[in-house]
Amino acid sequence: MERLTTEPNLAAPDDFYERLIAAHRGLDEAQSAMVNAKLVLLLANHVGDADVLAEAIAAAREDVASSEGADGPA
Fold first, then answer.
1. In total, how many domains does the chain have?
2. Which of 23, 52, 68, 73 lies at 20 to 30 Å from 12 by C-alpha?
3. Within-domain flag for 41
4. 3-class secondary structure for the chain?
5. What is the pLDDT of residues 33-50, one digit of tens each?
C-alpha cells in the first residue's frame, strides 16, 4: 500500500506557490473556491489510491476545526 508523502517533495516549491497564487488572481471568493475544488479533484484523480486520499483528507482536517465551536460538521 502506498503511503501519503508528507515530506517536502516539490523540486521548486516557490514556483508552484507562485502558480497557485496566480491561478486565483482576479477571481472572486466563489470562483477561487471553485478553482480549489477542481484542483483537489484533478489531483485526487491523479493519485487514484483511496487509502492515500483518505489519509490526505484526515491530515488536511487535523488541527483545523474541533467539534466544539466549529461552524460546520466536525
1. 1
2. 52
3. yes
4. CCCCCCCCCCCCHHHHHHHHHHHHCCCCHHHHHHHHHHHHHHHHHHHCCHHHHHHHHHHHHCCCCCCCCCCCCC
5. 999 999 999 999 999 999
